[in-house]
């Protein structure tokens, strides 16, 4: 991979493990065809299953972002693609439920919500700081800081479901995440270890659903241009913003990742409605928080008075002094994560608000 793709100018990040391969790549436009031919050949030569061939859809050149999220080709060998913390046995990712295209997912979820069908469990399998700013209507949120805690939290959700439904398991589980990867593991766990056979996953995750909405709205606009009749377009069942880690997930979508203008989150400090994630201005902390513009001004972008004090202190230092100071003091700030669930009781926004679906 490194030899062939490096020569093509491909950059990105690839993880290789026994359970599969995961990668996010940026391919120079002149090398797209050569890359397309090399990818399946490389995996076939290594006797690896490489899944379905993804159809290349033509894109509007105006939608292509010039920003590059990667600067080199980084290939890493891992024990797992996604650390799941599960020690109960192997997970066969080829048996993880069914993938629903976004248009079918939209219709099924709409019908489920209209019928108020609680026997169908809708799961948001992302971390809590992701779904606190955006989620699908009717979703049960798995409240975890990291994916490795997901299965334990999911067991509790399933136990609660059975208590509320006379000991019955969900007749169907619909689940989603950002791009679809986490759903593969959760789906495998549900089908192979929890006895739930009807598992439906949103194909391509929220990112693909956003693309579906955009295509539907564009089609409706085009139809209006050729007809005087009103054309109905799909409304989003996802409310708020889609949390992304970096530009690789955004594609042709806007940088704000806003799906609707619903504000579901709460400022970490004052508790006012807020959907804006930022990192603490104290670089030794750098904790991820939701912070409104007023608190960002008052706190100088810091998550606490202690971090604000450190930020002000380091601002008066030269770059070399800052580096030396961080080396000497950084350990006392790690692994503190101010937005962690363990600190949720100290937040102005009540836990009840954060648990709302």
Automatic annotation (TrEMBL):
Originating organism = Phytophthora nicotianae
Q: Know the name of this protein?
A: Rhodanese domain-containing protein
Q: Which SUPFAM superfamilies match?
A: Rhodanese/Cell cycle control phosphatase (SSF52821)
List the top taxonomic levels of the source. Eukaryota, Sar, Stramenopiles, Oomycota, Peronosporomycetes
Which InterPro entries has this protein been placed in? Rhodanese-like_dom, Rhodanese-like_dom_sf, Rhodanese_C, TRHO_N
**Rhodanese domain: from which residue to which, for each copy?**
116-214
Q: Which superkingdom, per the lineage?
A: Eukaryota
């Amino acid at each position: 991979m490194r030899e062939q793709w490096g020569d093509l100018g491909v950059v990105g990040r690839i993880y290789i493990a026994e359970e599969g391969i995961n990668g996010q790549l940026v391919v120079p436009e002149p090398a797209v065809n050569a890359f397309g031919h090399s990818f399946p050949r490389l995996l076939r030569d290594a006797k690896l299953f490489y899944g379905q061939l993804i159809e290349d859809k033509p894109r509007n050149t105006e939608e292509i972002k010039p920003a590059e999220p990667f600067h080199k080709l980084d290939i890493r060998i891992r024990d797992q693609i996604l650390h799941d913390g599960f020690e109960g046995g192997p997970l066969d990712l080829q048996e993880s439920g069914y993938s629903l295209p976004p248009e079918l997912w939209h219709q099924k979820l709409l019908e489920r919500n209209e019928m108020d069908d609680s026997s169908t469990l809708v799961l948001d399998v992302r971390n809590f700081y992701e779904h606190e700013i955006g989620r699908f209507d009717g979703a049960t949120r798995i409240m975890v800081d990291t994916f490795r805690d997901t299965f334990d939290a999911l067991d509790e959700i399933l136990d609660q479901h059975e208590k509320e439904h006379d000991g019955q398991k969900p007749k169907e589980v619909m689940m989603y995440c950002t791009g679809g990867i986490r759903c593969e593991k959760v789906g495998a766990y549900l089908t192979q270890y929890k006895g739930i056979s009807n598992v439906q996953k949103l194909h391509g995750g929220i990112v693909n659903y956003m693309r579906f909405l955009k295509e539907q709205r564009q089609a409706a606009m085009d139809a209006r241009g050729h007809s005087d009749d009103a054309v109905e377009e799909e409304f989003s069942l996802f409310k708020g913003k889609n949390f992304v880690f970096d530009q690789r997930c955004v594609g042709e979508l806007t940088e704000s990742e806003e799906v609707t203008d619903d504000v579901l989150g709460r400022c970490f400090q004052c508790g006012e409605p807020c959907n804006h994630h930022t990192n603490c201005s104290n670089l030794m902390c750098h904790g991820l928080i939701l912070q409104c513009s007023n608190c960002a001004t008052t706190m100088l972008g810091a998550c606490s008075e202690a971090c604000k004090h450190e930020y002000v202190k380091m601002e008066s230092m030269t770059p070399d002094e800052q580096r030396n100071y961080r080396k000497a003091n950084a350990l006392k700030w790690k692994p503190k994560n101010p937005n962690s669930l363990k600190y949720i009781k100290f937040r102005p926004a009540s836990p009840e608000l954060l648990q709302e679906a």
